[in-house]
Amino acid sequence: MINSEERLPFMRFRGVTGIISALLVIASIVSLSVNKLNFGLDFTGGTLLEIGFQEPADLNRVRSSLESEGFGDAVVQNYGTQEDILIRLEPRTDVKAEELGSNILEALRAEFDKTVEMRRIEFVGPNVGDEFIEQGGLAMLTALICILLYIAMRFEWRLAVGAVAALAHDVILTLGLFSFLQLEFDLTVLAALLAVIGYSINDTVVVCDRIRETFRKFAKLTPVQTVNRALTDTLSRTLVTSITTILVLLTLFFLGGPLIHGFATALLFGVVIGTYSSIYIASTVALAFGVSREDLMPPEVEKEGADQDPLQ
Amino acid sequence: MLNKYPLWKNLLVIFVVLVAALYALPNIYGEDPAVQISADRNATIDASTMDRVRNTLNSVGIEPKSVSLENEQLLVRLNSDNEQLKARETILDSLGDNYIVALNLAPATPEWLKSLGAQPMKLGLDLRGGVHFLMEIDMDEAMSKIVDGMKDTVRAELREERIRYSAVRVDDTAVEVELRNDEAYQQAAQYLDNRYQGYVLAEDEENRILRLEMSEQKIVETRDYAVDQNITIMRNRVNELGVAEPVIQRQGSNRIVVELPGVQDTARAKEILGATATLEFRMVDTENDVRDAQNGRVPFGSELLPMRDGPQQLLKEDVILTGDHIVNAGVGYDEYNRPQVNITLDGAGGNKMSLATKDNVGKPMATVFIEYEATEERDPEGNLQFTKSAEVINVATVQSRLGSSFRITGVGANEAQNLALLLRAGALIAPIQIVEERTVGPSLGQQNIDSGTQAIFWGFVLVLAFMVVYYKKFGLVANGALATNLILIIGVMSMIPGATLTLPGMAGIVLTVGMAVDANVLIFERIREEIKAKRSPQQAIHHGYDSALSTIADANVTTLIAALILFAIGNGPIKGFAITLAIGIITSMFTAIVGTRAIVNSVWGGKRLSKLSI
Which segments cross the bilayer (chain A) (predicted)? Predict the structure, then answer.
């Protein structure tokens, strides 16, 4: 993709990208605290029904029939196709929550006809929802800590901090996007976020690995030159892997059906951000902490690159 | 630099791929619509049942694909969904109530594969359609019920032993016994200490009070028992519903997961599963006046309860019998064709009933129906709070000393039906509440399968095309590895008994397809670099694989960490994603490193090359 004889001066722009990233992170945090996340049923608790009609659904008629049955608070919208609708209800106290779904279905069958098809009913008790939030947050933290420990063990703490900073950056920005656009945040999106962590760390590790190798191989380069060289050498790999991943995510987004939409959106955005952060964030942070050749020299000579001559 | 794999390594690769392919094979045979017949405890299934089923089906013009007897269950495979529904009805009519007839999809795996233990992947509820319930048990109520029962038992035992007490009462989680005199106190202390192993007996000699409390271990045992009993009862109730391959599992300390594949009538399922009713038989207090009690003077040891369709009743607090002694209950009709519920008790229940009614012939006995309804409140520990609503549903005069078999009359036909169903399924010791439900209709399940398969297919095609364009012949090698990887994932998923394919799981496969080429990209980029550095093609291949290895390992271990954490915290569908992701990472490392090397070595290895198609 690029001629690796030339070294691209990535780090020349690290001030600009640093500022942009910082601004985006701040914007995301602001959006998260102002707009909050549009938590889906998994986290808020409540009842959700997906109903299939034979012909395009008449939303107003559905609404009025639900209203007359005492479900005036129901949110009714189209879902995926013209024929499918989604009905959401907040947790309520007057009806046994687990019976709510069937009550609504009955009401609709009475109003329309027997061909009203139940496609999906979900009910989550409010406390179960709270637990999901707790578990999700915990999982995210555990993942970050475990990965930090692994990288610190395998590399060096400055690179580890850089890698985890890149991860946190990706997670915060993805969350920020979901908050800013008020996209629904449910369990599959949470799973996607963890997959983003997995993908982004994969990318970052490859870059860090090369930075370490370049430091060891070329004693004369400054840290900035070293990082530039490592980034250039891994650029085509970074791009190729991102392209193949984005290709499959696009098929998921367009063909995977509405249930997978949020998942694919989070991953698509996360992969793009993750690719950027593995180039700029991890290395910038490591440089800011003053990573140097001495930090990365092995206590004994490791196999990789040791049997090769310097390639300059 | 020859780049030749030893024979064993090539054989290993071939062997692994063949085994995986073999176990992935059952997935392409699809499933037959089937009807699964099992017997409850009053019936058996044998060769004669098989003939009967076959004849019944033939008589309505259905020719089953096969009828087989497996694990005391009959499996009837049919040719179409329509035949399946009709077959179920016909069989149900012909065999009667003692059999459970469930709709099922039976994998059409050929015999020779089955004999190797090969099975298709299990599909999650989001792909198959069905209901998932998470139920929570009210432990506090269970404990208080047990302590209550203990109080009654202690009182009866002291009476039997002729130890004079002035009071036996429940205090929080303990039973307190107050004795009349010192002699009785000594006797009681000795008796209770011997009798109640696993309990802590606190003695207060001054006030002649003995306090009997469960030990920590006993409490844990009791809680486990409450959960186990609920699971058993759920299983019975699920059998009533006629579901093939239900999952009923404990989750955490006080929750139960119930999964019912293929169930569409969720309202009925919930009614039966969620009904937390129990039954108590108690004597009516005939010595005191109901009107006095209604005016606020409820006599000690009695309780005023409402009655369904009738006036309030004054009942003795002592419970003769609770619902958990009920073995069987069914609807019958008396000589005037009025509905009645026939009840059979277990041995202990029969004895209790016999003892209690011995001196009470001619007196009225009440049946109390107790329902627990969850409130929205929780106690500080986050446990659901339940309200108990007790209602007298029937008062009948004891006609004679009752044994282990008796009947309740005077109930309406519908109520008799419902009551019998609940009684038959057993009554719950602890109230239970649905805290999460996920139901997927069959058409959505199929749609999910279709869109998942499409996404996998097109994602796969796009990546294959890209790799060939970008890496030419080496791209073909990577594509071979990618295809093999897909087979390996499906093979491993089919081999692991607990692994379930869900829609997010299919997304995980798609993602793996995109990410699995990464290892090959790393290797190929290295080879390109080495070639640019003027190494010979053979050396370039060798160094390319070698130096990319540790990078690939590091990158994949970290992704694996994320997948494992996802598996640990996720619920059903998310777990499915974590499983396919984790399996995909491991298999892709194998195919991308060992697999492609085997191909590269056999194509290019050992030859004098001037350039590489990469």
Answer: 12-34, 132-152, 159-181, 187-208, 239-260, 266-289
